[in-house]
Design goal:
Helix content is 22%, strand content 36%. By secondary structure, the chain is an alpha+beta fold.
Length: 371
């Protein structure tokens, strides 16, 4: 994979962000109001109705224990000690997760994700039995139940197996009903904090300027580089309309901090348009080691009662390519940085070491983050 292909998307973004082109974003794309957030819900349940692809209950004792408890609660009397003896392959133990959106009301439906926690082969065709979804405080906020939608498919026969996508996770659209609301006092005290998604003093100052220009001086003030305090109207209807208008205002955000993100596992390198390079010299070379093994067989003649002797002969070849010193010219835009790195002719994996060396030498003006 060449660097030109690796940086194709980054180069296109650079072309869109050339100096002189001023772009504006809505405040709702840059910030959110404090308290307007989702809450995570989680629960444990059982999926039934599987076609023999459920948990192997001898290896997942919690599944049989859950079945025993569920049947007992439904009035089914089971002999003592019969739980471990159950061999039901049509049931799977699962974890159910969901996001409770802000201002969710009782009776509203939300989507849930169902994930196997046992050794079930597939959840396809299963039905989630009614179970509660709890928040971090241990309170029940929703009840989930319904048929799973699994995007994957698979088949196995005579030792052969074929599978498309993942079969251990499914979703239930609108599979949970909200039973408890989360109280949110939005600006009831007369003030509401607007939080930038990325802390930046200049962007915070520009947001304050735009809001005060539209609604009058004193409406907004910057607490710090992330939090902006906004004065809201007293009435609820006026407050909602005011906040909606604030979110729709356009602001030109400040240029983000220069950063290079390196994924050492995949060899991916992504950088933003603020990255620059100083004039520097880079030497790049490769060292390859090839080890080949040949088997030599010595077989005795017929009726000689000898033994066949097998010996291994290994050859090691080390090839060192000469590194060429390349002059990297100074650059002031992302497109020029990509062009300079392409001139080196390094692979994405080699580029990881080159960028780290450029950062250590002070030639790369950006924050280097390895993930």
């Amino acid at each position: 994979m060449t660097l030109s292909r690796l940086f194709l998307l980054t180069g296109l973004l650079a072309a869109l962000g050339l100096p002189g082109i001023v772009h504006a974003d809505r405040i709702k794309d840059l910030a959110s109001f404090q308290g307007v957030r989702t809450n995570q819900l989680v629960g444990y349940g059982l999926v039934v109705g599987l076609d023999g692809t459920g948990d192997q209950t001898t290896q997942t004792p919690f599944t049989t224990q859950s079945i025993f408890n569920m049947l007992t609660q439904m009035g089914v009397n089971l002999p003592p000690g019969s739980g471990p003896k159950m061999q039901l392959k049509n049931i799977a133990a699962v974890m159910v997760t969901a996001d409770l959106p802000a201002f969710a009301q009782i009776g509203q439906n939300i989507d849930v994700t169902v994930s196997s926690i046992g050794n079930a082969k597939s959840l396809r065709g299963g039905t989630l039995v009614m179970m509660p979804l709890k928040g971090a405080d241990g309170q029940v906020y929703a009840m989930a139940q319904g048929s799973l939608a699994v995007s994957g498919a698979g088949a196995a026969a005579s030792g052969s197996k074929a599978q498309i996508n993942h079969l251990g996770v499914g979703r239930i659209p609108a599979g949970a009903t909200v039973e408890r609301t989360v109280a949110t006092t939005l600006g009831a005290s007369g003030n509401l904090n607007l939080e930038l998604r990325q802390s930046d003093f200049q962007t915070a100052s520009r947001v304050v300027e735009v809001v005060n220009k539209r609604f009058g001086n004193g409406t907004a003030r910057a607490v710090n580089g992330r939090v902006i305090e906004v004065r809201t109207p007293a009435g609820e209807n006026e407050r909602v309309a005011f906040l909606g208008e604030v979110e729709s205002l356009n602001v030109s955000p400040a240029q983000s901090m220069a950063k290079v993100i390196i994924n050492a596992r995949t060899g991916s390198v992504v950088m933003n348009q603020a990255v620059t390079l100083d004039r520097s010299a880079v030497s790049h070379g490769n060292l390859s080691v090839v080890i080949s093994t040949t088997s030599n067989v010595s077989q005795p003649e017929a009726f000689s009662k000898g033994q066949t002797v097998v010996t291994q002969e290994s050859q090691i070849e080390i090839t060192a390519k000469e590194g060429e010193v390349m002059l990297v010219r100074p650059s002031a835009s992302l497109a020029e940085v990509v062009k300079a790195l392409n001139s080196i002719g390094a692979t994405p994996q080699d580029l990881l070491a080159i960028l780290q060396a450029l950062k250590a030498s002070g030639a790369l003006h950006a924050e280097l983050e390895v993930i």
